[in-house]
Amino acid sequence: xxxxxxxxxxxxxxxxxxxxxxxxxxxxxxxxxxxxxxxxxxxxxxxxxxxxxxxxxxxxxxxxxxxxxxxxxxxxxxxxxxxxxxxxxxxxxxxxxxxxxxxxxxxxxxxxxxxxxxxxxxxxxxxxxxxxxxxxxxxxxxxxxxxxxxxxxxxx
Length: 156
Ligand SMILES: Cc1cc2nc3c(=O)[nH]c(=O)nc-3n(C[C@H](O)[C@H](O)[C@H](O)COP(=O)(O)OP(=O)(O)OC[C@H]3O[C@@H](n4cnc5c(N)ncnc54)[C@H](O)[C@@H]3O)c2cc1C
Prior knowledge:
Blueprint (H helix, E strand, L loop, with lengths): L8 H9 L4 E5 L6 H5 L2 H21 L7 H25 L3 E5 L1 E6 L2 E5 L4 E5 L33
Parallel strand pairs: 1-2
Antiparallel strand pairs: 3-4, 4-5
Helix pairs in contact: 3-4
Flavin-adenine dinucleotide (FAD) binds next to strand 1, helix 2, helix 3 and strand 3.
């Protein structure tokens, strides 16, 4: 399984439940891909929290300020909980070996997984490429943010 995003890791668990041995690798070292790491989850956590603050201002005449550091902490907590849940899923599926590393296809069912310290070679009867895609900014379109883990307060 090349990549461990939302398209890949459920397939890895299904294959394991069907009795297959699965090797899955992703340089992030966590399951969830860009959605959990830098896309959907961080962006929606920030959006939800911003909406709560705006509603409190409008409906409850709340005049307090939102500390961006608190928002970041909440966002990071949501992410951390999901990472922990995924680690539990991996423990529950001993047929799935997850490696931190980038996969290079070598042909004839062989692949090299280059990890931070060592490289591992595997041979498989099948491979699933779940390497995702990158957003492209449309011509003359608005700016397109790929990574939603801003460390500074975003401008309005
Ligand atoms: C800012 C933002 C907000 C988003 N919000 C939403 C939302 O609210 N709802 C929604 O449904 N979707 C949202 N998306 C889209 C969602 O993130 C993607 O649809 C989803 O992540 C695609 O999953 P995937 O598994 O196909 O790919 P990815 O999540 O991109 O996963 C691919 C994985 O493959 C790994 N990889 C790549 N090359 C290799 C290699 N050679 N070897 C090993 N691993 C490799 C990458 O490290 C990555 O982890 C958002 C995206 C962004 C950028």
